[in-house]
Amino acid sequence: MGKAPLRTMARLVGAPVRALVRRSPRLTAALWDTQYALGFWGYLDDTGGGEVPLSLIETWAPNPTILDLGCGTSANLPLAEGRHRHYHGVDISRRAIEAARSLDRPYASFEVADIRTYDTTRRFDAILLREVIYYLSVPEATRLLRRLPGLLTDRGRILVQIYDVQRSRQFVEVIRECALDVATRLPTDSDGGAAGAFFVLTPAAAPKP
Ligand SMILES: C[S@@+](CC[C@H](N)C(=O)[O-])C[C@H]1O[C@@H](n2cnc3c(N)ncnc32)[C@H](O)[C@@H]1O
User: Fold this and answer.
1) With a 6 A CB cut-off, is 74 part of the ligand 1 pocket?
2) Which segments constitute the Methyltransferase domain (predicted)?
3) Which of 33, 51, 69, 92 to mutate to test the pocket of ligand 1 (most atoms within 8 A of CB)?
4) Could you give the number of structural domains in the chain?
5) Which of 108, 126, 147, 156 is the most exposed, having the fewest neighbouring CB atoms within 10 Å of its CB?
């Protein structure tokens, strides 16, 4: 069979398989665990892009508490003592969280959970979603972004990082559905940007009477 029919078949089979996997937290976890076991995401640990989100957070919350949803191993975040009050990483992959714990990061805790249903009584100055939003369906991403403001402190903001700047344009449509304001967007449409696109989101301001 030629490449084009194979690609078409992969597309046809791929969409329902992805939808099925997404519906089951167990299958989603198994899929990510397998990818980590095969070393698919090892290259992320060596990327230097983690400085940008931490510097951005410091502009609105020095010494912040941070919730990192879909944290992976967290190895690419330069978490240094004295820079943050507490960092909590959440990921559906047990393997990623084991690797994260083995790094012995300062003032950090980790938890295995599905961010689509994750909840906590704690409140955070920054909630990170770094290269994870696209692994959720649009309704799932919308539901998550609608409830995250409830986990923020008064000064808290949500920071979404999307490594592929082209795909970030689609994300603007999702934000529109979520009663969130874009406080900062990097890079702007005219910039490049090695670490991808960043959106700093705040709960939408109440309309003036
Ligand atoms: C591309 S990796 C990004 C990891 C890390 N945020 C980074 O930027 O280096 C996506 C991560 O999202 C996690 N993930 C995907 N779907 C998830 C879900 N529903 N709940 C929690 N974590 C999820 C995966 O296990 C994986 O670690």
Assistant:
1) no
2) 64-164
3) 92
4) 1
5) 147
